[in-house]
Amino acid sequence: MASQLKKTHLHEFHKQEARMTAFAGFDMPVWYKGIIPEHLAVRNSVGIFDITHMGRAIVTGAKSEAFLNYVTTNDVAALAPMSAHYSNMCNEQGGIKDDFVLSRLEQEKFFLVYNAANRKKDYEWLVQNAGSYGAKVEDVSDNIAMFAVQGPKAQETMQKIARADLSKVERFKCSWTKLAGEEGFVSRTGYTGEDGFEVFVWNTPVSNPTKALKVWNAILEAGKEYGIEPCGLGARDTLRLEAGLCLYGNDIDEETTPLEAGLSFVVKLKKDSFIGKDALVKQKAEGIKRKRVGLVMLERSIPRQGNEVFKDNQKIGAVTSGTFSPILEKGVAVAYVSVENAVEGNIVEIKIRDKMAKAQIAKFPLYDTTKYGYMRQK
Amino acid sequence: MRVNDIEIPEGLYYSKEHEWVKLEGKEAVVGITDYAQKQLHDIVYVEAPKIGTDLKQFQAMGTVESVKSTSEIFTPVTGKVAKVNGELAESPELLNQDPYGKGWIARITLKDFDNDVKKLLTAQQYADYVKNLEK
């Protein structure tokens, strides 16, 4: 069974140091030291994640901008070279095919990073729609190692091994740079709510992991003085949930629209036609019926995916992700609730193992943004 | 004894659901094994049974919540709950730190241990069982 799972360059390291799990066809680390210490390392200092399992594609061609503007919801024309933005791809009904980060490498060259579970689906969807624009879509997933270095000490850690001046790489900007002497690319992006970088080691297939290992080890060494922790998928999930970032397959899917998910900031309805536009224009005019919200438990209990949410004994929605927040030290959740109930401060009940437990609707991020996250007071 | 990094003290009895039983006169102290706490990891809440509850062997008696999952605890013996570990409410991490000591969950007044023990494992049997799971 395990032998059928794909491995990343760091598989031997993970196997030695972490508890492993199958995720999106890969054998991946869930935790090394523990979800809570890893989570706290990222919020308080710095952590490193191997996220090579994610999908990556390069789109090129004279009409690549027009193509991406058609297939994605955000405004690609507004994206300057060496800039990145978060975006969605929708189906014709406005349901989310995937969420991803798009970087513009050059005027006619783009780089997409999308969910591991959607590697095949996204690539096929892109190829299927690229034809009439003459754009070329290349799946480069297997040739690039990808790490996330996240936390308030991420820049100081990365600067020790990067040739480029990282203080000049602002949030959602990118840069080519040598990393521990190897060809690399960094974007100031992440999935934790913290400042940090996503780090790409180019031209290093899993069959020849030397460069990837070198960069990974150099980052661990550089971060040692800050107490860097390797972090697994467990902490990745608790961090993103506290920050209010969506997990595809849980919080968003093809049955959910960006408007319901609170992602309308990446849907530019003023753009010329794009896939899903008509459905989204219609939904906006009619008004959404349910909305994604954050929930913080008022009782000692942890909500989990599928738990139903009630108000005055009436079912108003369901939990799509739930966990324990190491920062709040409380159960927290992402849920969809009827729009009239989606009001910050509203107290609702979640049915957890046949017991009703009180929770309060809260805005994302769930933590105090003056103390944690990329906007924290320095 | 040990299986990989999992501690399995001798002299205790074990269930296949990874609870342990320590006999102390007419009572049994019960908890979850080192294997169970390592599987769950990051335990954040423990819901212990209520004192006075009558339990049948392998009936659910509480829950353990880790960051990632919720698991039921099944009583390995039949009897009445005499005492529960009150410290777990404030310090659930005791289950991770000391599963066979400070992380005990409940004391149960035994009813028919001669019968219970037929369905429990010795340390050696449990070690073999865990060895198989670890493969």
Describe the 3D structure.
- The complex is a heterodimer of chains A (378) and B (135).
- Chain A is an alpha+beta fold and 378 residues long.
- Chain A has helices spanning 11-17, 35-44, 64-71, 119-130, 154-159, 210-223, 233-243, 277-286; strands spanning 19-23, 26-31, 47-50, 55-60, 83-90, 96-106, 109-114, 136-139, 145-150, 174-179, 182-187, 196-201, 229-231, 290-297, 308-311, 314-325, 330-338, 347-352, 355-362.
- Chain A has a six-stranded mixed beta sheet.
- In chain A, helix 2 crosses helix 7.
- The radius of gyration of chain A is 20 Å and the shape is globular.
- Chain B contains five helices and eleven strands; from the N terminus they run E-E-E-E-E-H-E-E-E-E-E-H-H-E-H-H.
- Chain B has helices spanning 34-40, 87-90, 94-97, 113-116, 123-134, and strands spanning 2-3, 6-7, 13-14, 19-24, 27-32, 43-47, 54-55, 60-66, 70-74, 79-84, 106-110.
- Chain B has a six-stranded antiparallel beta sheet.
- In chain B, a hairpin with a 2-residue loop joins strand 1 (2-3) and strand 2 (6-7).
- The radius of gyration of chain B is 14 Å and the shape is globular.
- Chain B starts with a strand and ends with a helix.
